[in-house]
């Protein structure tokens, strides 16, 4: 299945095979799947790399509903800290390259597992969030939504640091926790786009977490040309057509330049 696995020390033009060039430059429907790796160069840690979040913290204690219900203060504090950090981060050249690519193809969508909102901050318009967004919060009882500022207002004015809605329900972050369903609309749209894609890029994800990791497989099964951008090998590497081994903040701007020069529609 795989054309080649390449490093990016040399020029990207020389490294793309003729099949890769033909498929990339003739594509009309492009779908991107991103994971934590695309935001690594913005200073947001990934989950499963050496210094990843899940190597320091336990998802059992922090990223599931039971933990939130039993230890609301600890879980809320942890998410507030992460939100305060993420809020100050900026998109990197990888995010900006994808934003520019959006203008070049008739159909271009980003499906992201990230909850940091950096694609939108970079200006990308068609972004499907599979795992929610840490900047949003909602009441588990009446489902009222709270912005970060509204949440902080409540959080900072309670001695307990247990954020409560007017209806007495707990306020939680709008992120998908382990054991929870992904938002149905986002998931359906993601699989539909993967089925129809001509070109599919899987960027900065370990492809470890389902159902997101099934999306590139669906694209492959339906005839898309699939490229992985990642400095390390993943469970998908042996199935994709081409592997661009390196950081997305370095590879994607080079790929963008190639596409701008060669796009044939
Ligand atoms: P992981 O931490 O599992 O994987 C991050 C991937 O990014 C790895 O394959 C790295 O090699 C790669 N990477 C690191 N630096 C990179 C760079 N500069 N450029 C490109 N790639 C780089 O993160 P995800 O695959 O996103 O779920 O994890 C999936 C889900 O697991 C997350 O959405 C989160 C987590 O539990 C929820 O919170 C529901």
Q: How would you explain this protein's 3D organization?
A:
There is one protein chain. The mean pLDDT is 92. The strands form two sheets. Strands 1-10-9-8-2-3-4 form a seven-stranded parallel beta sheet, sandwiched between helices. The protein has a three-stranded antiparallel beta sheet with strand order 6-5-7. By secondary structure, the chain is an alpha/beta fold. It has helices at residues 12-15, 18-26, 53-56, 59-62, 65-70, 72-87, 93-102, 118-122, 148-156, 184-196, 214-221, 248-262, and strands at residues 4-7, 29-34, 107-112, 127-129, 132-139, 145-146, 171-175, 199-203, 225-230, 242-245. Helices cover 39% and strands 18% of the residues. 2'-O-acetyl adenosine-5-diphosphoribose binds at residues 35-38, 40-41, 46-49, 52, 63, 113, 131, 176, 204-206, 208-209, 230-232, 234, 247-249. Residues 35-38, 40-41, 46-49, 52, 63, 113, 131, 176, 204-206, 208-209, 230-232, 234, 247-249 line the site of 2'-O-acetyl adenosine-5-diphosphoribose.
